[in-house]
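ok new one. same drill as before - structure tokens go in, u give me an amino acid for every spot. 187 of them this time. try not to just spam alanines like last time pls lmao
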């Protein structure tokens, strides 16, 4: 079964900071679950290539494998659940703009992070929409959004995806190596 409850809880731990490595023990503690149970499920996710493991001493450091389609699917399910839970924290004016944008079918991706709305669209559509000045709403091409996340990794950490979950994670997948290198440099 894809995305059973424990798998989704584990994925949520990784999704809370998608670039961070976690030990099995730290995941167990975060979830308040018995280590052997988490260890078994993590090993299952490793065998499915959803999670990568790196041996450090006597333990594993685990990270999401963004190259895995199953990992992307599980992350998307988590984002759908997160969207249901967290949409209430978005200001009404921003939600109204999101609904307007969704009705136009001209956006590729919409992400809410750090009180900002990032609308990913094509260059020609960007020109049309960016004339409507809305505080904390940024109309960007895919490349411009990548540059934003390279300069501020907290955008990823605090992201609430409002449209096109799979596209968002595919974008991270394309840049996974660079993002992890940037995170490592900033430690």
């Amino acid at each position: 079964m894809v995305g059973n409850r424990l798998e989704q809880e584990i994925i949520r731990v990784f999704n809370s900071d998608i670039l961070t490595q976690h030990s099995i023990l730290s995941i167990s503690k975060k979830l308040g679950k018995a280590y052997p149970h988490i260890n078994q499920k993590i090993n299952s996710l490793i065998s499915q290539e959803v999670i990568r493991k790196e041996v450090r001493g006597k333990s594993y450091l685990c990270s999401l494998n963004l190259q895995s389609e199953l990992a992307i699917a599980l992350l998307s399910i988590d984002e759908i659940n997160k969207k249901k839970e967290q949409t209430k924290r978005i200001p009404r004016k921003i939600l109204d703009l999101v609904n307007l944008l969704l009705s136009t079918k001209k956006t590729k991706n919409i992400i809410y992070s750090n009180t900002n709305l990032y609308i990913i669209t094509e260059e020609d559509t960007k020109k049309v929409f960016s004339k409507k000045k809305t505080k904390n709403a940024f109309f960007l091409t895919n490349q411009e959004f990548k540059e934003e996340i390279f300069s501020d990794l907290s955008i990823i950490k605090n992201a609430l995806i409002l449209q096109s979950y799979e596209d968002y994670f595919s974008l991270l997948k394309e840049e996974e190596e660079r993002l992890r290198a940037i995170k490592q440099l900033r430690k």
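Strands lie at 22-23, 51-56, 59-64, 107-113, 116-121, 137-140, 160-163. and btw The domain at 1-86 is CATH 1.10.10.10 (Arc Repressor Mutant, subunit A).
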